[in-house]
Amino acid sequence: MKLGCMLYSMGRSVHSGAISIPEAFRVIRESGGLGVDLMEGLLGSHSPEELKAMVEDAGLVVSSHIGGRNLTQDDPVARQEGVDAIKRLIDDSRALGTEVLLVTTGACTEGQDKAEARRNVARALSEVLPHAREAGITVTIEDFGSSLAPYQTSDEVLETCELAGPDLMVCYDSGNMVMGDEDPVDFLRAVAPRVRHAHAKDWALVPDDRARLYSRAGKGYIAAVCGEGALNYPAIIAELKAMNYPGFLAFEYEGSDDPVEMTRKGMAYLAGLME
User: Fold this and answer.
1) Which CATH number covers residue 58?
2) DSSP character string of 97-155
């Protein structure tokens, strides 16, 4: 298992100009990271080739590329536009030098049946998987925290994968299934055969008047840095080790504190556990 970081974790600092993309890469490397997850929308006007060179200059590799479109829609024309866009993301992933693409697939509309949304997502992804196979790219989906996500729990994620086909794999996000009231270790055990990449985030359980996200059972959470929230990271890391997970565990932060300092702090915590 190798430590990485999502560029998204420092996204606010990158957007504000407080830190440049190359400087963010250096923070990751200085914090013990070996890989960086890049994300559509955070890359400015740089070409994939330019970004790959920046990553390599920092002593890193591109561990994953992240992007997507809304594939939950019933409209076949809109869904086809999404399929075409994801094929372009596959091509970009190859140019970046990564073998993993995480596809974000959009939210359900109000009142939409989530099982129907999962079928729409799976139908669209089944159309991009042959292109990904030819490009040498593994397409993944992850559990999502939003209440409008078409899949949050392991059953829902696995159903989507099975509908799309055997090539669709999972990015294990250690925090998002909490919003579906599923234990992170139980989730990991359920999806283990499909896990190709992993993210590490944390949530703090708080009173309703402070909460930003609610689980299906109504528990309120705010984002926290790894090691300071409700998740049992020693148990999560132990399970990843037990399954001989060989890939990257990419630190993720969504809180309101300084993103650069929280990235350093959270990566140091994960590095200690991984040793």
Assistant:
1) 3.20.20.150
2) T-SEEEEE---PPTT--HHHHHHHHHHHHHHHHHHHHHHT-EEEE----STT-S--SHH
Query: 212 phi and psi, to 5 degrees?
Result: -110, -25
pLDDT bracket for residue 268 (50, 70, 90): very high
In the chain, the number of structural domains is: 1
170 domain residue, yes or no: yes
Query: What is the tens place of the pLDDT at every residue in 208-255?
Result: 999 999 999 999 999 999 999 999 999 999 999 999 999 999 999 999
Instruction: Supply 216's token pair.
Output: 């299906």
Assigned domain for 41 exists: yes
Backbone CA torsion sign across 234, 188, 73, 63: positive
Cβ 83 vs Cβ 120: under 8 Å: no
* pLDDT band (50, 70, 90) for residue 3: very high
φ and ψ at 122, to 5 degrees?
-65, -40
**pTM for the full model?**
0.96
Alpha helices in the chain (DSSP H): 11-16, 21-30, 48-57, 76-96, 114-135, 154-164, 184-191, 233-242, 259-274
The phi-psi region of residue 80 (left if phi > 0; otherwise alpha if psi is between -120 and 50; otherwise beta) is alpha
Residues 86 and 124: their CA atoms lie apart, in Å, by: 10
**Enclosing domain of residue 134:** 2-201+231-274
